[in-house]
Amino acid sequence: MAVLSIPSTGQEIKDPAEIKQYLNQRGVFFAQWEASVVFEDTASQEEILEAYRHELEPYMSANGYTTADVISINKLTENYDAVRAKFLSEHTHSEDEVRFFVDGQGLFWFNLDGHDVFNVLCQSGDLISVPAGTKHWFDAGEKNPFVKAIRIFIDTSGWVPEYTHSGIEQKYI
Ligand SMILES: [Fe+2]
Prior knowledge:
This protein is of the alpha+beta class. The chain has 4 helices and 11 strands; from the N terminus they run E-E-H-E-H-H-E-H-E-E-E-E-E-E-E.
C-alpha cells in the first residue's frame, strides 16, 4: 500500500483514494491492482506477467502500451550502487514510466512545476505511471534493496533517462 509524503509540509497521505486524487490532479496516474500471488524468488518473468495478464492486457491496450517485462532488484543485484545511482538523479523520459509493484518497494520522487516536491512509496499492488517529460527520480534504498516490478512500455527506446543535472535530489537523500 502506497504512502505519499510531502517533505516541505510534513504531510503524509496513506488513504489510497486520497493518494489517487492527489496524483491525478497533478497528471500522474495511480491505481491499485490485487496482488495476491506470492512468487518464489526463482519465478520467471513469464510466470509473473502471466499472473497479471488479466489486469495488464486491458490496461496496455487502452493506453497504447505494447511491451512489458519484469525488473528485479535485490541484495544479490551486482553493482547495486551503480544501478541505484542511475535512477537517483533527477531525470525525465520521452515516454511514460509505468511500473506495477509485484513485491518489495521503491520511492518515486516528483518535482512538478508549481508544486512542492513529494514522494510516493510504492509497494505490492501499486501501479504508477510517471508521464513523459515529468521531472522525477527513483530510489530503491541504500541498503537491502528489494523491488520486483512489471515495467510497461510503448517503446523501450523511449525509456532512457534524460538527466536535468539540477542536483535537487541531493536535498532529499
Ligand atoms: Fe525514470
